[in-house]
């Protein structure tokens, strides 16, 4: 075993890349849940984004078209969920699980013939001067643009929720949909927009996996990332900054266990591979056991079916 | 009635039908500026639909409205707000997890930036004697303070017409007095107020005109100051009202004893119960008063068995039952009916038979060796429906389909017919019309007369004064020592409720003036009296 082979700077930089897909998906789900909708279909939307982004990027040779199309495709299937749960008022949990299964199946169908194809490379941006700063430059400024975009999106979501009127309305709808309706806000419309945003973000996260992180297409390649994103939203107590922290923590453990495997730690690979998930569960248990602020922060109308007549 | 030129709001021929029921049938009335106008009627008479039409939440099928002489047909609440109509809702339209300023901003068309808004909230709330801290979370406020948020939200938009739907149902007498002063001040400034309430004494004290609705139609108009509460009630019901009467039985042995040191709440925004002890004797009714959110739900949960205690903290006939769950306690004779009818006392989508089965299974032997005896269960449900005059097509109807009053009669009847030794009820007549409320109170008194101990937790002081033998006040999770109801003056009850603490800024003289107000509001048997000069 040779722990000295692990370079902390590279470790942190690759942690950020590892965290980006779940950070993107979780940011979308955060908005969705803040509006009072629990969409368990994140995994399905992510993998739809992964395959659609991959197909378009491989076909056109332009990864950015791939990202855009991934967001659109995942948004489209999130709206299936939106219409079923908001307009037809079906149960959100069952519909969300259905969306995940649907997404997994659909992506396998679309992805046929793309196994082993190499997608166009997403260029890494070396920002002049900034990238040359010792340590920090390598950690912060030598990534592909999606890493920075995901960070900007977290900031944008925070600003949106905290400072804008639209964000206030979104939180109000999620907190008490009957009261929001009584004040004249369009609950269903707000929620459909939140669901669509959640879908687009999950699609971006999926495309990051297939275009940057892996980068190739294999069936079922999201491998539970969508579920981790869902857990992260609870872990973060519906707060954007804690979401960022949680995503990087999870990314860090993933990268660390890969590095430990490479360094030849004498622990069976399976244990290392399951460690991020175990730690996520552990943290969730610890957080949920301390009631009060965290339980309080959950949107009041989360996962409740809204019917205007009541 | 006033003509178009001087009326602020004129409503003519408003009709709105829902499948199977005409909520509003050709309703006409008018309000002048500065008038406090009462809208009276039992549950289901169409009051809420009518005000929702005025506020733009519901569109009428037919009819015309004029506001300040111009045709008025708001498409949504923001159009109504823009025209100058404000509304304070019966179930507060507030958001617990947001702060006061955010809640206010949500009810405004063009909310100014938060800092400026916070300043206007402070100014206007001081001006009307309703102090509010804009940065506090609404979930932490008392019911009275929450209502202030709603009122301030309306006032910030300078409404010409303020609609208030059952505003006093959750307030202490002191808070009611502050509210009335605010409303009178507003009316003097020319704001018209459309006031909906079940509390007839309040209407007599506040309103100068009343429109009475029954089954969706205007049946009468009057000046409530010239009528007795009883006359008003009979106009609403369209018949004579039975006053509950009671055969007194001498109180027997102590059957239920509760003694708690501290018990933290199970839910966020709950109340911690502290140093709470009570005992009830067979044949008596213990009334527990207090404003919502002072531990009523927690106390009911402790008594019903939803919250477990150390065994000796709760004794039934001397046996420690604190550890037992609801089903075991029921078997021993301690029954309960929680406040929330749909979802707590009854399962909304299950039939009345199934709901009867849910609490009656063991005492009524509706289950044998694990199998449900449907015949017996249906018979039990039918018996409840018959004896408690529950208006429903039959025992197969889902609970959700019943009106509030009918479902409440069913819930109370289900427990009473199981012949409990101790019955605990929380808000037995909340949101129930006068007739059903009288029937429920009569049933509780009959039960006590037959030798059961009854604990009634209620925010309705009239109700407690009518039926309780002893009275204790629940305030911030503590229970005052119980006192004999007959010995208590109205002022004393008002002070026991302790609602005055956080009101001092608003009404330093409220305590002194409480007496007159309470005697206006809380007259035992006031319905029988002649109108006061």
Descriptive labels:
heterodimer, A: 310 residues, mainly alpha, ABC transporter involved in vitamin B12 uptake, BtuC, 13 helices, globular, B: 533 residues, alpha/beta, Rossmann fold, seven-stranded mixed β-sheet, six-stranded mixed β-sheet, 17 helices
Concise synopsis of the structure shown:
The complex is a heterodimer of chains A (310) and B (533). With 310 residues, chain A is mainly α.
Describe the 3D structure:
The complex is a heterodimer of chains A (310) and B (533). Chain A has a single domain, classed as ABC transporter involved in vitamin B12 uptake, BtuC (Orthogonal Bundle), CATH 1.10.3470. Chain A contains 13 helices and no strands. Chain A has helices at residues 8-34, 42-60, 63-87, 92-110, 136-140, 145-163, 165-175, 177-182, 187-213, 225-235, 240-263, 269-289, 293-297. Chain A is globular. Chain B is built from 17 helices and 23 strands. Chain B folds into 2 domains: 4-237, 3-Layer(aba) Sandwich (Rossmann fold), CATH 3.40.50.300; 254-346 and 403-487, Rossmann fold. Chain B has helices spanning 47-54, 77-83, 100-106, 114-127, 143-155, 173-188, 200-206, 229-237, 296-304, 326-332, 352-360, 374-387, 404-416, 434-449, 461-467, 490-497, 510-521, and strands spanning 9-18, 21-31, 36-40, 62-67, 70-71, 85-88, 161-165, 192-196, 209-214, 217-222, 254-263, 273-281, 285-289, 314-316, 319-320, 334-337, 367-368, 371-372, 422-426, 453-457, 470-475, 478-479, 483-484. The A-B interface holds A 165, 168-169, 171-172, 175-176, 178-180, 182-185, 291-292, 295-297, 299-300 and B 56-57, 76-78, 81, 89, 91-98, 102, 105-107, 111, 139, 268-269.
Described by strand count, sense and barrel closure, the largest sheet of chain B is: 7 strands, mixed
Radius of gyration over C-alpha positions of chain B, nearest whole angstrom: 24 Å
Q: How many extended strands of chain B?
A: 23
Report the CATH architecture of chain A. Orthogonal Bundle
């Amino acid at each position: 075993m040779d722990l000295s082979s692990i370079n902390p700077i590279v470790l942190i930089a690759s942690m950020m890349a590892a965290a980006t897909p779940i950070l993107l998906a979780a940011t979308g789900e955060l908005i969705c849940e803040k509006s009072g909708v629990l969409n368990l279909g994140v995994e399905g939307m992510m993998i739809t984004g992964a395959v659609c982004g991959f197909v378009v990027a491989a076909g056109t040779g332009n990864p950015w078209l791939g990202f855009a199309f991934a967001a659109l495709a995942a948004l489209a299937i999130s709206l299936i969920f939106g219409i079923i749960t908001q307009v037809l008022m079906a149960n959100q949990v069952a519909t969300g699980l259905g969306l995940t299964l649907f997404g997994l199946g659909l992506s396998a169908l679309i992805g046929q013939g793309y196994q082993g194809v190499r997608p166009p490379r997403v260029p890494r941006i070396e920002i002049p001067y900034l990238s040359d700063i010792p340590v920090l430059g390598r950690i912060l400024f030598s990534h592909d643009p999606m890493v920075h975009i995901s960070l900007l999106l977290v900031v944008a979501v925070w600003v949106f929720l905290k400072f804008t009127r639209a964000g206030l309305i979104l939180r109000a709808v999620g907190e008490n949909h009957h009261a929001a309706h009584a004040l004249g806000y369009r609950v269903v419309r707000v929620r459909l927009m939140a669901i669509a945003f959640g879908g687009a973000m999950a699609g971006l996260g999926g495309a990051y996996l297939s275009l940057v992180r892996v980068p190739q297409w294999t069936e079922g390649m999201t491998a539970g990332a969508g579920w981790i994103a869902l857990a992260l939203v609870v872990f973060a107590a519906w707060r954007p900054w804690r979401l960022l922290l949680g995503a990087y923590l999870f990314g860090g453990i993933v990268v660390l266990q890969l590095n430990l495997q490479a360094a030849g730690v004498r622990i069976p690979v399976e244990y290392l591979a399951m460690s991020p998930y175990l730690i996520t569960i552990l943290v969730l248990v610890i957080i949920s056991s301390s009631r009060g602020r965290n339980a309080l922060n959950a949107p009041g109308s989360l996962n409740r079916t809204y019917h205007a007549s009541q | 009635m006033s003509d178009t030129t001087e009326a602020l709001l004129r409503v003519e021929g408003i009709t709105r039908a829902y499948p199977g029921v005409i909520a509003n049938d050709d309703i006409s009335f008018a309000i002048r500026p500065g008038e406090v106008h009462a809208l009276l009627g039992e549950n289901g008479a169409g009051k809420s639909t009518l005000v929702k039409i005025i506020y733009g939440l519901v569109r009428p099928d037919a009819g015309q409205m004029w506001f300040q002489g111009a045709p008025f047909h708001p498409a949504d609440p923001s159009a109504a707000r823009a025209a100058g109509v404000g509304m304070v809702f019966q179930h507060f339209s507030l958001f617990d997890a947001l702060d006061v300023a955010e809640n206010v901003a949500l009810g405004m068309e063009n909310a100014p930036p938060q800092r400026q808004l916070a300043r206007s909230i402070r100014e206007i709330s001081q001006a009307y004697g309703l102090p509010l801290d804009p940065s506090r979370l609404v979930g932490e406020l008392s019911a009275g303070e929450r209502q202030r948020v709603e009122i301030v939200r309306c006032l910030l938009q300078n409404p010409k017409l303020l609609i208030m739907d059952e505003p006093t149902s959750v307030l202490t007498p002191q808070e009611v007095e502050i509210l009335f002063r605010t409303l009178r001040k507003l009316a003097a400034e020319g704001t018209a107020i459309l006031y909906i309430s079940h509390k007839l004494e309040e209407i007599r004290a506040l309103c100068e005109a009343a429109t009475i609705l029954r089954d969706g139609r205007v049946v009468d108009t009057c000046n409530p100051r010239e009528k007795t509460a009883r006359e008003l009630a009979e106009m609403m019901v369209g018949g004579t009202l039975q006053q509950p009467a009671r055969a007194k039985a001498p109180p027997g042995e102590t059957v239920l004893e509760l003694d708690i040191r501290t018990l933290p709440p199970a839910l966020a925004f709950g109340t911690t119960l502290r140093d709470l002890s009570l005992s009830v004797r067979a044949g008596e009714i213990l009334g527990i008063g207090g404003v919502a959110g002072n531990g009523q739900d927690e106390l009911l949960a402790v008594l019903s068995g939803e919250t477990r205690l150390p065994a000796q903290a709760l004794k039934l006939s001397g046996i420690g039952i604190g550890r037992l769950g609801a089903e075991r306690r029921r078997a021993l004779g301690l029954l309960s009916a929680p406040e929330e009818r749909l979802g707590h006392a009854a399962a909304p989508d299950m039939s009345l038979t199934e709901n009867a089965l849910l609490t009656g299974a063991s005492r009524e032997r509706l289950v044998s060796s694990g199998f449900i005896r449907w015949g017996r269960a249906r018979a039990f449900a039918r018996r409840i429906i018959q004896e408690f005059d529950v208006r429903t097509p039959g025992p197969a109807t889902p609970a959700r389909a019943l009106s509030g009053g009918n479902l409440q009669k069913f819930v109370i009847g289900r427990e009473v017919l199981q012949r409990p030794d101790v019955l605990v009820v929380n808000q037995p007549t909340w949101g129930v019309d006068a007739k059903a409320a009288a029937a429920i109170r009569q049933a509780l008194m009959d039960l006590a007369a037959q030798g059961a101990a009854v604990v009634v937790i209620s925010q309705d002081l009239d109700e407690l004064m009518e039926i309780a033998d002893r009275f204790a006040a629940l305030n911030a999770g503590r229970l005052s020592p119980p006192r004999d109801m007959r010995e208590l003056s109205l002022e004393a009850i008002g002070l026991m409720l302790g609602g005055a603490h956080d009101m001092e800024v608003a009404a330093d003289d409220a305590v002194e003036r409480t007496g007159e107000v309470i005697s206006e509001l809380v007259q035992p048997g006031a319905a029988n009296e002649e109108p006061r000069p």
